[in-house]
Design a protein that fits this description.
Elements: H1 5-53, H2 61-86, H3 90-96, H4 99-125, H5 131-199, H6 214-223, H7 245-255, E1 263-271, H8 283-298, E2 306-311, E3 314-321, H9 324-339, E4 342-344, E5 350-352, E6 355-362, H10 368-385, E7 390-392, H11 393-400
Parallel strand pairs: 6-7
Antiparallel strand pairs: 1-3, 1-6, 2-3, 4-5
Helix pairs in contact: 1-2, 1-5, 2-4, 4-5, 5-6
Length: 401
């Protein structure tokens, strides 16, 4: 069974989004845990404040009242801080459902704080009259609010424990999902990469290789050629190991239907000042030049292209591209790449090899032989213009006019 690369990547994308959202939720819970610790520290701080309020020295009543006013006001500010922190308690609001209970406890705490402040104020402004009674009222108020603060601390610890359990489950789920995804898709991506290697014929020994993906299978079917040119020496140029004229015709016949909607261009390159009659170099050095030129052209070859050495110093390049402009652009890039090759002559001098080319767009109803004939005519015009140039059929037409 073949697997769709598109489906694999869509599923992988969806899983990555799920993992990202899950990790975002974990991050939110971690931040909320910090907020919960701030609440507990706040409640502990209130316990310290009411303890200090219950034990102010009455020897200096004015100083005691100043301290009382400051700390009693601070108690209400601390309660407001707890209300503000609760605004960001999304877990308590939407998952645990304890937000309303917590706000109700803050209302009760505010009431107890008011009663405590009132009892403490009456105690400190009272001289000797009813001192014992006011002291008892303060102790009762202190006990009530202190006990209530203890209960709120215990509740918050319980809330934090519930949040931790949620965080624990989400973290474990995220880890398991990430682990499974990593191994599952690592194997599939490796299979896709192996398909690509197979299509590029890097693993030539794997004759019985079974393609994993639908897309690679479809590409292989379209790339499948009746005779394999590289396996038939009669179709290869013995010097450059690319197609000869016969191999070019065979390759073109097998590839011409692979991209019917594309434009087909035919270009004949001729190495400038490099002919059988003008042999300036040894046979060994000449063959090295021909091999290098052929290799440079092959670097630009795509699956639907055909390249061949069709004469002593001529190379034919048949391209299939989406537009005429792209075909000419790619041909000109090949010309420029060849001109950038540097050779060292046997005498030590550095020489540059250039090519001239005749470029035409082959009509669908025209035979390849006729297109080759026209390309040779255009090549002759290019050679008359000078070295290292490419002419098109319109250049020939303009010259004749």
């Amino acid at each position: 069974m073949k697997h769709s690369i598109n489906k694999i990547f869509n599923n992988l994308s969806t899983l990555l989004i799920i993992i990202t959202l899950t990790l975002g939720l974990v991050t939110l819970l971690v931040l909320e845990q910090n907020s919960s610790y701030l609440k507990i520290n706040n409640l502990k701080n209130q316990k310290d404040i009411i303890k200090s309020l219950a034990n102010l020295q009455k020897k200096d009543i004015e100083l005691a009242l100043i301290q009382f006013n400051g700390k009693s006001t601070q108690l209400h500010h601390e309660i407001e801080k707890l209300r503000n922190l609760n605004k960001y308690d999304y877990t308590g609001k939407f998952l645990l459902g304890n937000s309303e209970e917590y706000l109700s406890d803050l209302d009760n705490l505010s009431t107890l704080t008011t009663n405590f402040n009132k009892s403490a104020h009456q105690y400190y402004i009272n001289n000797l009259e009813n001192a014992e009674e006011k002291n008892q009222e303060l102790k009762n108020a202190f006990h009530s609010i202190n006990t209530f603060l203890d209960s709120m601390i215990i509740k918050n610890i319980s809330y934090n424990e519930d949040k931790f359990h949620i965080l624990e489950k989400i973290t474990i789920f995220s880890f398991i999902l990430t682990l499974i995804t990593t191994f599952w898709y690592r194997r599939r991506l490796n299979s896709i990469y192996t398909d690509v290697l197979h299509l590029y014929a890097i693993d030539k020994d794997k004759k019985d290789y079974v393609i994993f993906s639908e897309e690679a299978d479809a590409i292989k079917l379209r790339m499948n050629r009746k005779p394999v040119v590289t396996d038939n020496p009669a179709m290869l140029d013995p010097v450059t190991q690319i197609n000869n004229h016969k191999g070019m015709l065979s390759s073109y016949s097998n590839k011409k239907g692979m991209k019917d909607s594309n434009f087909t261009s035919v270009t004949i390159f001729e190495i400038d000042n490099f002919s059988k009659q003008n042999r300036a170099f040894s046979q060994e050095f000449t063959q090295a030049i021909l091999k290098k030129v052929a290799f440079t052209i092959s670097l630009h070859e795509q699956a639907t292209d055909v390249i061949a050495r069709t004469d002593y110093n001529q190379f034919t390049v048949i391209l299939s591209r989406a537009s005429k402009e792209q075909s000419f652009k790619d041909i000109d890039i090949i010309r420029q790449s060849i001109s950038e090759i540097k050779f060292k002559a046997p005498g030590g001098d550095s020489i540059t090899i250039t090519v001239s080319g005749g470029f035409i767009i082959k009509p669908n109803n025209q035979s390849l032989d006729e297109s080759l004939r026209q390309a040779k005519e255009v090549l002759q015009h290019a050679k008359k213009k000078g070295k290292n140039t490419i002419s098109q059929i319109r250049d020939l037409a303009e010259h004749e006019l």
